[in-house]
Every structure is written in C-alpha cells, then in structure tokens.
Amino acid sequence: MIQNSSKYTQLIKAEAKRLGFISCGISRAEFLEEDAPRLENWLKNNMNGEMAYMENHFDKRLDPTLLVPDSKSVISLLLNYFPSETQTSESYKISKYAYGVDYHFIIKDKLKQLMEFISEEIGEVNGRAFVDSAPVLDKAWAAKSGLGWIGKHSNLLTKQVGSFYFIAELILDLDLEYDNPVTDHCGSCNACIDACPTNAIVADKVVDGSKCISYFTIELKNEIPISEKGKFEDWMFGCDICQDVCPWNRFSKSHNEPLFNPNPELLSMTKKDWEEITEEVFQKIFQKSAVKRTKFSGLQRNIKFLKD
Fold first, then answer.
1. Alpha carbons 300 and 91: distance in angstroms, whole number
2. 281-308 b/e with 16+ CB inside 10 Å = b?
3. Strands 235-237 and 93-94
4. Are 151 and 196 in contact (CB under 8 A)?
5. How many CB atoms lie within 10 A of CB 51?
6. Got the DSSP string for 153-215?
7. Residues annotated in the binding site for [4Fe-4S] cluster, as ranges?
8. Per-residue pLDDT tens for 237-254?
9. Cβ neighbours around 98 below 10 Å, total
10. Where on this chain does [4Fe-4S] cluster 1 bind (predicted)?
C-alpha cells in the first residue's frame, strides 16, 4: 500500500500541474485541533459581522471526515490569478481576483477533471471537490500540506509566488503521501498591518472580518457605516491592500489562464465612467464575474460611498 501511495501521489501531483495548478500539497484528513479555538474566538468576538453562514457547520469546518466519510487525504491546490495588467490609476478599484470569469466555474471544472483522472488511473475513489463555497478551512489545509504559511494578514503566503492565488481542495478516502508544513517567513515585517486603512488586522494572523473593506463592499447588505468614510482608498469591490504591500508579492508572476483576463473595458474605465455606469454596461463587463455577487445596486452603493 505504501508503494501505491507514493505512486498515486506522484500521479495526482503531475496531473494537477498539467491542469494548470501552480502547487499541490497533501495532508492527512484529521481534526484541525489548533484551528478550533481560533475559529471559536473569532466567532465569539463577532469578527464575522453579518456573515452568519460562518457560524454554521462549526464541526464540519474542522473535521473533513464529516464532509467525506472515511476520508484519508486532503489535497490542496493553488491556482494563480495575478494579472499582467491592472486598472488605470484614475479608476475606482476592484480586487484582482474578480477581473475575469468567476473562479468558481474555472476551478470546479479543473477539479472535476482531476477527479475523473483519479478514477481512471487509480480506480473507485470517493471524494468531494471544494472551492471556498463549503465549510472548509482552505488556508489551514494549504498550510498543513506545506504550500505556504499563514501571513499576518491571515492569507496564505508562499516564498516563490506570494499570495495572489486561489485555494481549492479534494477530500478523498485514499491513502497518499503527506507533505510537511513550512516555516513562517513574515519575521518582524508589519507592512500589511500598518497599511490597512480600517485597522482590520487586529492581531497576528487575525483579521476582524467586520472591519475589512472586502466585507463592507461585498458581504454587507445594509448601508456602509458613515464612520468608514474616507478610509477605502477607492476600493469599490474587495480590497488588495494587505497583499499589494506584502514584500513576498514582488515575486508574483502573471497567470496564464485566458479566462482570468478582464474585459478590456474594465481596465480603461475612469472614475467618471464608473459613476455613470448603466446596468447594461455592468452586465456586459461582469457577465460571468464574481463582481455579480454585489449586484448592480451594490456596486452603485459602493461607488456613491466613495464619491460623496
């Protein structure tokens, strides 16, 4: 079985690379003991704001065997989304991850192909694919499987590539070879903490979600509190400040996934263009984009908040 585990692991990692994932790491499917008190405290201090769904499935978030019975391995995968071009400096900004087609569609398709490959090459394997839409602590699993360490801004960081990537998982009832976590390389750097305009990074590796610009511009359904006026630095959907200032992101290289490329109009639009945007233009530019989460009315609310 050990011999097979090694062979299967190599097969899966080679196929993940072929499918375009920049990294693939594997950890044993077991209860995330260290993360349990962290998650409990985070929820107890209401750092999830109005994201009530974060309180659901507490046990499942920490125990993969509750998601996939008899699971043995968690395969973590990273997919780069760093763009070759960014918006004009005269624009309201959207997070780089939302430039192109919604990543859920793209990654789910790749995971489906990986699952089919595993069935063909290895045989009947039970498992499920996850792309941040289920109760899975993806950053914790990626760190456990050696793909990087959790930075002070609570994002996964990798020496060679920084942090502009998506994380996805396959949880399988298959024994594989497990990777080891890597060491933390943030050191005494506090660039992300110092740069956050809403002081959302409240402790090392702890982000108060209810203070984050991404939360205000995407998750919050009510009006943005007046106390946050003037703090958003022109971010109208999401926020990349803590990643943009991170020294490790100087190693970011642009992705090679055509579906992540933005609509050309997106890159050239000015603040005035955004202020005058119609629903028709919104639907055209963000046809299959994650920006649709906030809807046209939500984006208008955000732009008005930045403008007034």
1. 14
2. ebeebbeebbbbebebebbbbbbebbee
3. parallel
4. no
5. 14
6. TSSEEBTTTBT-EEEEEEEESS--PPP-PPPP--TT--HHHHH-TT--EEETTEE-GGG-HHI
7. 186, 189, 192, 196, 212, 239, 242, 246
8. 999 999 999 999 999 999
9. 23
10. 186, 189, 192, 246
> Annotated binding site for cob(II)alamin: which residue ranges?
61, 132, 156, 167, 214, 239-240
- Told to judge if 273 belongs to the known catalytic residues of this protein, a careful annotator would answer no
Question: Which residues participate in the annotated binding site for tRNA?
Answer: 221
Q: Half-sphere exposure (CA, 13 Å, Cβ side) for 56?
A: 7
Q: Which residues participate in the annotated binding site?
A: 61, 132, 156, 167, 186, 189, 192, 196, 212, 214, 221, 239-240, 242, 246
- Written as six digits, the tokens of 267 are 């890159």
pLDDT by residue (tens digit) across 94-109?
Answer: 999 999 999 999 999 9
Our measurement of the distance from residue 99's CA atom to the centroid of its chain's CA atoms, rounded to an integer in Å, reads: 14
Residue 160: its pLDDT value, please? 87
Domain that residue 19 falls in: 1-308
Neighbours of 128 (CB within 10 A): 16
Output the CA–CA distances (angstroms, integers) from residue 214 to 93, 98, 238, in the order listed.
12, 12, 4
Which is the catalytic residue, given 63, 132, 234, 273? Answer: 132
